[in-house]
Amino acid sequence: MPHLIVSFLILAVLCAAPTALVAKARQRPWPLRAGLAAYLAGIVTVTLLPGSAGLESGQCDTGVPVHMFTSASSLLNVALFAPGACLAVLLFRRPFTVAAAFGCLSVSVELIQAFGHLGRACSLTDVAANAVGAVLGSVVGAIWLRRRHQPPLRPARDLLWGATLAVVAVAAGAEVFHSRIESVDVVAMDDGRHRFVESAVEADEWITTVAKGIYGDDLRVRGTETKGYGDRLKVTAETDRGSVSGWWPQKDLESAWSSNPRGEKGSLTRTQVAAAGDEFARKWFPRNIAGSTRRTRPIGDGATRAYVVGYRRYAQRVLLPMRLDLTITGTGRVIGFTARTVEDPALPRVTVDEGRARSLARAETGLPTDSTLLLARRIEGTWRPVWLVGSGKRDIVIDAATGEQVHDVG
């Protein structure tokens, strides 16, 4: 906070000087009164001087840190209110009322921070730390008075006033916080950011290791990018030999593509290329190829043709959502892949055959059917077996378990 010292000195003089003059005019001891006025000016300066941080107006941090009263911030808040409360007890000799009054001051400060557009952050943790400081300061002041044989004035009335003031402050503060202030758990937000940073570092190390395993240890990583999707991170590494992306912390690779995607003249047969694909898939996608069916098809013509080696899994002849496609040259070099690693869903029994699915589609469109595909689709959050029937330029989706047409496909 810039100009903190200057602001405090100006405000302290403006508060302490009139207080001292009034005390002297009334023939009362003025040093303690002036000191308390100056200290209150210091509290106001430290807590209400406009800053450059904080929450939005009408918000307050309600998060409870693990080390609530041992953090540097909490200890500073305790230290901020304790001396002022001690001075007030020495002056007024009413420790219970003073402790409650300083607690009210803390609540008032946080409310002003919440609504005052000061660039300051309202925090219930600060209220608690300030209250602890007020109680400690009052206790120290009471002990000091006792040692000087100056007992508190009217202790029973002091206790009653202090308890009443504390109850009123707690009730009023709770009502305002509940009805007018939006609770924001900054602690949880900070913890989330810290977890994201830690996970991003681990994900970066993992994807870099994967890139070296695919393209070679001597590659140069140009940069990595990490994006959060709920509790998962998608991380992508760009290197001088190609890119690769995957999901953390599941360690599921999603795609990769070499910076040199051209086919090469090679002597490997389709069977040998498929064997090279199996070797690559066993290393990087063991969950995808388990129980899967492999198909190999050529891309292009001539000696530089490449091949796509695809892996799919089926249940009840239903194509499951897992996908893996490897693009491999005639020399056995993997120049790219796309993968979708999904646990095989439990599907209801298929009761609609292909013929009935075509009939249902024709009844809907009035057009002949071109193609059919039986696959698993997520329908309103649940995996279902469906027939995807092509009718002209329109695809009809039929639930393969119920025969009903599906309109909302997710």
Describe this structure in words.
- The chain is α+β, with helices and mostly antiparallel strands and 410 residues long.
- The chain is 47% helix and 23% strand.
- It has helices at 4-25, 31-48, 72-92, 95-115, 124-147, 155-180, 186-215, 270-284, 286-289, 354-365; strands at 59-61, 182-184, 221-229, 232-239, 242-248, 252-258, 293-299, 306-312, 314-315, 318-319, 323-329, 334-340, 371-379, 382-391, 394-399.
- An eight-stranded antiparallel β-sheet has the order 3-4-5-6-12-11-8-7, covered by helices on one side.
- Strand 11 (323-329) and strand 12 (334-340) form a beta hairpin.
Oligomer: single chain
Largest sheet: 8 strands, antiparallel
Q: What share of residues are in beta strands?
A: 15-25%
Residue windows where pLDDT falls under 50 for at least 5 positions: none
The secondary-structure element order is HHEHHHHEHEEEEHHEEEEEEHEEE
Structural class computed from helices and strand pairing: alpha+beta
How would the blueprint of this fold be written?
Elements: H1 4-25, H2 31-48, E1 59-61, H3 72-92, H4 95-115, H5 124-147, H6 155-180, E2 182-184, H7 186-215, E3 221-229, E4 232-239, E5 242-248, E6 252-258, H8 270-284, H9 286-289, E7 293-299, E8 306-312, E9 314-315, E10 318-319, E11 323-329, E12 334-340, H10 354-365, E13 371-379, E14 382-391, E15 394-399
Parallel strand pairs: 1-2
Antiparallel strand pairs: 3-4, 4-5, 5-6, 6-12, 7-8, 8-11, 9-10, 11-12, 13-14, 14-15
Considering the chains and any ligands shown, give keywords for the structure.
410 residues; alpha+beta; eight-stranded antiparallel β-sheet; three-stranded antiparallel β-sheet; 15 strands; 47% helix; elongated
